[in-house]
Amino acid sequence: MTEVELRGVAHGALRAAAGSFTPACTVVLGDDARALATLVAVMSGAVRPDRGVVLFDGAPLVRTPGARRRVASLLEAETLPFARDVDTAVARALEARGDVRQPHDVLAPFGLDVWSHRAQRELDRDELRSLALALALSHEQADVLVLYEPFATSISAATHIEAAIRRCVERGAVVVVATASRAGALHWGGPHCSVRDGVLARFTRDSVPASVGTPP
Q1: Is 125 domain-assigned?
Q2: Structural domain boundaries enclosing 149
Q3: Is residue 137 in some structural domain?
Q4: 213: which residues sit within 8 A by CB, 6+ positions away?
Q5: Strands 24-30, 193-196: pairing kind
Q6: How many domains in the chain?
Q7: How is the chain split among helix, strand and coil, in percent rounded to 5?
């Protein structure tokens, strides 16, 4: 069974985070976007924490390339591999994770194939996050999926994001959704954890503080 464990993690706005995540959809509700974004960054292996360690099945995530290839994520700010256009950039991202599919196979289900020939330099923050979300949700070999505000992209209303996330859970993946929306957290059966004042804590739904988050 896949497990992601945070041991004494601290980095920037994330002052303290500890605990383990196992196969299920865990919703983290936060009152500070910076701390939530940092949590996702360290859990995905994109950032090495200043203190502590993130373990993937007992191995340090940032020092285990094989484990990092089994993690899919959506960060607060995204980039693509340098390339002349979207199609080539997505092809390089797929190659890096050992995915033999063509870019069209990943982009078309999300309606993003119309961007295939756009120059990468023309993409704004939202468009980059939309492409990253498509790549994350299409990662069929990912054992861990860590998403920062997955419904806050330009493609969210037009795609089957919920169905894709549920498929990940059904195949036994560890899924973590980080959001500042209390309504969104409740929609996903959470929240199961909170980040308040930069500290990660678990709680039951009955103990959710009403002041945390606002409806989308």
Answers
A1: yes
A2: 4-207
A3: yes
A4: 29, 30, 31, 179, 180, 181, 182, 183, 184, 185
A5: parallel
A6: 1
A7: 35, 25, 40
Q: What is the pLDDT along the chain (216 residues), one digit of tens a residue?
A: 899 999 999 999 999 999 999 999 999 999 999 999 999 999 999 999 999 999 999 999 999 988 999 999 999 999 999 999 999 999 999 999 999 999 999 999 888 999 999 999 999 999 999 999 999 999 999 999 999 999 888 775 555 788 888 889 999 999 999 999 998 888 888 899 999 999 999 865 444 443 333 333
Decide if 80 is inside a domain: yes
Residue 135: CATH number of its domain: 3.40.50.300
pTM of the predicted model as reported, rounded to 2 decimal places? 0.90
At a CB cut-off of 8 Å and minimum separation 6, what does 25 contact?
Answer: 165, 166, 169, 175, 176, 177, 188, 189, 190
User: Is the residue at 216 inside a domain?
Assistant: no
